Amino acid sequence: MKDEILTYLPQGDWEEKIHWFDSLDSTNNEAKRLAAAGAPDGTLIISIHQTGGRGRMGRSFQSPAGMGVYISLLMRPGVKPEQLMHLTCAAGLYSCQGVEAATGFLPKVKWINDLIAGKQKLGGILTEMSVSTATGLVEYAIVGVGINCGQKPQDFPPELRDKATSLLQVTGKEVSLPRLAAAMALSLTRMNGELLTRKKAIMEGYKGLCITLHQPVQLLRGEECTPGYALDLDEDGGLIVSFPDGSQRTVNSGEVSVRGMYGYL
Question: What are 175-194's pLDDT values in tens digits?
């Protein structure tokens, strides 16, 4: 599969950058292992099966063999953590662009880290980082993306069939996993080069794809559920929400999950 992926990529050092696995626990976990071993900035981990795929807040991410593309990018930006507050938004934008480049279909995003087709989840993003206690700088950041490709409705657990979809269902066509993997590798690599220099443009691009904005939402924190209205995003990707009492507050992805008033979206 790695050789097939390379045929879709332009000339460059992709052979050294890409670490391919038929199966592993999690591409993000492997990225952490490689980071600890000194892997350089721009290292990519790609698989078509995860036995322990993870989403935000410790949720599991279904990663059946041969039905999706799972990819992680290891970054070594050498900046303060607050300079990477928009990283998940950037990953959402460039992931959507990668999918479009490979399939012609442009997904949307649900704040902050879900790729959406219609009213169903097409994929997910998990960003993680390690900060040096000595310097206060980011030792490494990892962007992990999983995209559902070949699933039919019956391939999802019953509780997810009305919430999840795949590129096969959306486009009506079989998806070339090597082609999609290559497009994602190229797009995330481009993100790595533009993350700190094109922040404003990245956030505008993300806003244009974000279905959460200008919609009623529910903020979920543990057992607590608070209704509100999604007004806008701040420059770092925080969601600006207005509440029935007239107040406004900016929430971040570490605080809460967001759901539409009438379902998953």
Answer: 999 999 999 999 999 999 99
